[in-house]
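Pasting as-is:
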Amino acid sequence: MLARVPKFFRSFYFFTLLGFLVWMLFFDSNDFITQFQTSQKLAQLEEERDYYLEKIAEVEKDRKELMSNPELLEKFAREKYLMKKPTEDLYIIVEKEEEELQEQQQQ
């Protein structure tokens, strides 16, 4: 039966090469599975980086627009931070549904 196997497949070099390939594909710290997972993680991180770069550009554009227009800055401060002029009174109207949701979230 051993005579049927070609001489090349019975050689020391073939077994050494086969062992080396098995080791590199499955057991080494840089094996095929680890390389695949690393490339997937890299692709995911690059997508996140692109998303955040777009958001940064958007925020910088909004900031530049706010700083160049005093009326828009005042509107933003009044709506977002509930700021008011010293002579004004501020009334906040809360919808009933929003109030119920806030109570449920606090519980």
